[in-house]
Input
Amino acid sequence: MYWLLKGLTAFLHKLSLPNVQKFGAFIGLLAWYTMPGRRKVAKINAEVVGAADPAKTAKESFKHSFTSFLETVFIGIVDQQFIDKYVTIEDKHYYDDLVAQGQSFAFVSGHIGSWDLVSPVATLAWDMKLITVGRMTNSKGMNRFIDDLRNATDRIVYIQQFGYLEKLNDYVSRGYIPGSLLDHIGTPRDSFFAPFFGMEVETLAGMAVFCARRKIPMLPCYLLRTANGFVLRPSKPIWPDRDLKPKERIHDLLVKMNQEFEKIIKEHPEQWFLMHRRFKRIKKDADGKTSSSLYR
Output
């Protein structure tokens, strides 16, 4: 698996970004017709997020998602020329204001737009260093490949999710900004229930716990795909409420974070990773019993 993926990466490096995007969209289209299970999930999710045409949105999401997978190979070759050619930056004042105040923060995003390029683009455009946290897969070869790609620039350190806290604290003490993608479902041991599109769903809580304890805000940021490249768009920082008790403060952060994700997903539902079973575990009662009935 590892060497197969390395060979594919070498091939993709010979192509321009527009051609890689076309290739990714083509693979996504093939996947749409050959992955009925994921196609069903994407349609259901498109309905949940309120897409005007769920089937069309789900199909477009396949094309965007597989494009995102292939764009990952550009992580290590994003430079100023890449940004000048392909990236427009909006609302940078949200970042500038935090820096001017000397305020620490966490960099958070979701699986929307070009989710693996948002980190290398933002770290170069804003001259910062990032320590990012991600999940392990069931494949050692895939994990090794992901490590290689996401650690391909000295501006970003990528660590696997389990046992990450000690490393995270170490790098933050050295001036790195903590970052993660937080819109996907977690596991019962690393999640709290929080409302998302009208349902109480398991929501990754690690970064919210980190921010609540340190009393620092989350800075949401996305790299959305456009006709000519991308737009880098941060949003208003999400601050922990210091008047709340610790657990309430964490839950409040998760609620606000999910509201932020809802907003950007409603604006660009076709760019969200709709084939993911985000609503797999839903809280049905006060005792916290869950159900996976949404995808049955």
Remarks:
- The radius of gyration is 19 Å.
- The first strand starts at residue 87 and ends at 89.
